[in-house]
Amino acid sequence: MFVRFSHLFSVVSAFIVLTNCGGGDSDSGGDNNLISKLVLSDENITVNESMGSVTFNGGKTLAINVGIGSGAFHFRDDTVNEFYSVTDRGPNIDCSDSKAIVGIADFCINNGQVDKEGKIFTHPDFRPTIYKIHFTTSGVAGVTPGYDILSTITLTNKNGDPLRGLPNPLQTTTTENAYNSNGNKLSFDPESVDTEAIIKLSDGTFWLTDEYAPSLLHVAANGRILERLVP
Question: Where in the sequence is the domain holding 131, given as residue range(s)?
Answer without folding.
Answer: 2-229
